[in-house]
């Protein structure tokens, strides 16, 4: 099976890093091909950014030569272009937020979300409403992260995400916490999960759902 | 007051025609400035088209020189880019579907919609869900229209829209029927309204709501 | 165009004051005719009051000589008699809460409400549920106001409303705050809007929506 | 225990007839006192009628001398004045539509409604939405009935109601059918219930719920 | 009339105690027959317990000799087996949580719930969602109770329930507080109701609703 | 990875057959262990059956020796015991209806369901409401199937399912049709998919989601 991972953030280093995680996740089971939106913004953080990224993702896909992948993963959270790409794609399409939520619904009765970016919580609330999952979500916490490229920032992101996870566990008691956003991909593995609670990494969830849909459609 | 009308369809003739209607609607009360998305599709008819138009609308607005309009009307139905543009605009922003629904909610207890295009009904259902207006909408009928530029097509559109309006009036008994879509702008005035029922033209509704919001914010 | 403004509170001084505001809002564009419910309560503040006012409004309208106004504004918040009057009125009918909410939905992604009266918050919640707008409302704060006729009370109302607005801005971060209720009409203009946030006066919103619907139906 | 039954329809013959049914239902267990709204309409059939009846019911209750009933039954369907009366009443208050629905929710998984009057179905839909019971209701059928006082009309009402019940049973397969409206009170007992389906008379449901609430509050 | 009360908790002492309360509630009006689930758990406190109790309740009912009761009360809160038993029972079936909520909906505009057990709040939220009553519920408080058989524990339960009731009254201002759970049956009568607020005992509510449904179906 | 597939229907032949399908689906990637509920009913077809099966599934799991599977698939549709088992299981748990719906939500904008059994449609509606997916489901069609063990019945089931799929495609135009129920497992592969529409087999969907959750949690 072949998966095309398409990053809606115009940040090729982020694409490379997510592709490396995808290859580690799948091993030999799935061949991963990665691509990056040529237009838009380096890191999607608003409705305006989503609109730019959504248009760029559709245009990029239509400009690519015909190829033969079995699934398509839109490697951004939120979900820019997801409905549009799904409408035209001959293969199953996954998004990182949607995949995370659908995994979380199966892993427990209630979930919460930790994500970077001030504007994300309300954008996520709207996606949850669209998905019908609002009542299962106990809360969304934004962690402040400024420059994701610096190692020092990675340490700060980890500390802040851990604090947000611990605070949600204590005050909300979810069964699952989604650690979401392309910028935080992989971070969940470095966090300590509070007792009796699962952490879901949004990139891993999208990789798992892509695998499920490719197997189902195959 | 100055209104910028921005057409998300890349069809300058349609823009001119909607701008003429806007000027007739407002008279001297509002000065209308019109612009057309430079990229995207001539007539938006799918989720894919909406994604392309949404990105193009945001990009166009940001590329325009700073000007001093008091309101912004996104002259397409559905609503490509509406949330994104609203996030960044310093002035009130209206969309044609949303404005039509908000007028209809005030004009009666139940409404229905007639619109061109096979894919529109489900896209509209999703917007109604987002708006919270689903339970007030009794049904959405798509009328088949192929080439909106030809006069003969305009006649066919009128006949089909009238048939759809009459059928909805008889089977659904709404208080209001929205005749929606940039391609049908102005058509409602040429239709016979069934007894006891109001027809709402989606462009007129957007012009009326733009006036309301400019007055409120002014 | 002629608008009939009908105050459901049996308080003619309040009617005069709202009519003066309406005339200032419209200038020459709309002629304003005002009337006051002859029965009911001086200031509507409960479901019981709404039932009395609703019956009185319908009866008053039916007792008036036939006239030729183009729109009808029910100048109370909540909305006593709105659905009933809308059922029988040949011209568009607006209510102050509904108009405020429909404006707020177009001015931002989330709103909140400041209103006088202990019982109003739950009555407003029920109207928002009926309108489908509950999920867009972040909170409703009641400000205590005792005697609206005294100038000193007006100062106190302004101070308390400003405190409530500031508190909502800080804790809820809405895009729009509705300052609602006939008793607070005009107050929003005297308040300082927190940065990045719009204040909506409920009477002005109803005047703006009345204008929109009269233009649309005209 | 003493129950006050207050008819919102200004039709004393209907009040007498419902009071007789109430006395037969309760036997010695409950003493029934009946009263009729002095203002409003003979038979409530619209939102306008509901507004008039709601105001009249509140006014009537407040004008009555203090008495010592243990419960209050608003003997109309729809529910004029229910929330308002409940707000001020020291004793439990029941309404005929609400009581019917709450009984039906306990008697089966899905219900439907047969009721007189062209405007009732949408008014009932709105009450079901308010109650949260919309998804349990499979359909509402209006039966045409013109003059309820004539015996011949009673026969016609029975035939039309039976036809509506049979049609709903065949096409919707509800577990329960509510035969609702003050004008149809008592009619359910004269109808043949389709196999495996219960008929609920709306007056009997309100009598049963009044009994429950008086026992609970006693 | 004869009522079968079937306790889903495998605790015959609890059954006896609830049957005694039922007989006191009904006097001569209803004959009470009581039975206890032979399998399952002594006190239902989780979704797992509900699944065991639900199966045991259905099996018990089907193993009983045919008898001639007129109603069936499932004497547990939550509601194990309710939909299943209702599907097969020829007589009306009530559950303690559902009956409490349906009473509360008629007694006020908003309610809250006090109940023992850490897992109950989210299980109750799910039942409220199923019933459509979520928006009327302001909050659910769990009171910690360990061994219900000890008199000392009864005192502790009363103190903790009173504290929870007082706290909800102060912070949520409900019109009604449901004191729920088989373990707390009868406790509401021993608590002081905050001013202007009714307490509903969940067993009494189920007895009252059973009476209503038996009278309605009889 | 090791998956435990637990059939809630007490039909070991059905278990064997589903296990064979599971092994074919997974190849070497997952080791499949299968078990059958020792109590309950041969084929779950009602809410009563679900209650019996739910209790039996929980009891069976707790009676099994501790083993080391990585996931648990409840091989019945509807979903008996799912929430209960999920509460106590240390490994991810999937159900066939839920997994089908979560796959369908990712494969298109609207889905419909074909399933055997007269009572299933309303039971499924309730699960969709619980999941928040009701508005994405266009319809549920029940196909009449009597004895699933006979080859002739398999042919009849296929013909009836194909007719139901074709009818839904023509009248509802879903993007995805779920062919659901343990009795129909594997049938989707033998059906012709209408153009532009995907068929989802409910067992395959559960196998795919089990794979996703085991990979995610691993």
What structural class results from the helix and strand content of chain A?
A: alpha/beta
* CATH class placement of the largest domain in chain A: Alpha Beta
CATH architecture assignment of the largest domain in chain A? 3-Layer(aba) Sandwich
Strand arrangement, major sheet of chain A? 2-1-3-4
The total of beta strands of chain A comes to 8
Task: Report how far apart the termini of chain A are.
Answer: 9 Å
Q: Which ranges of chain A are low-confidence, i.e. pLDDT below 50, for 5 or more consecutive residues?
A: none
The total of helices of chain A stands at 7
- Series of H and E elements of chain A: EHEHEHEHEHEHEEH
Quaternary arrangement of the chains shown? homohexamer
Largest interface: A-F, 36 and 36 residues
Q: What's the overall average pLDDT of chain A, rounded?
A: 94
Radius of gyration of chain A: 16 Å
Question: Could you say which overall geometry of chain A the principal axes of the C-alpha atoms support?
Answer: globular
Pfam families (chains A, B, C, D, E, F): Asp_Glu_race (PF01177)
InterPro entries (chains A, B, C, D, E, F): Asp/Glu/hydantoin_racemase, Hydantoin_racemase-like, Iso_Racemase_Enz_sf
Protein name (chains A, B, C, D, E, F): Aspartate/glutamate racemase family protein
Family (chains A, B, C, D, E, F): Belongs to the HyuE racemase family.
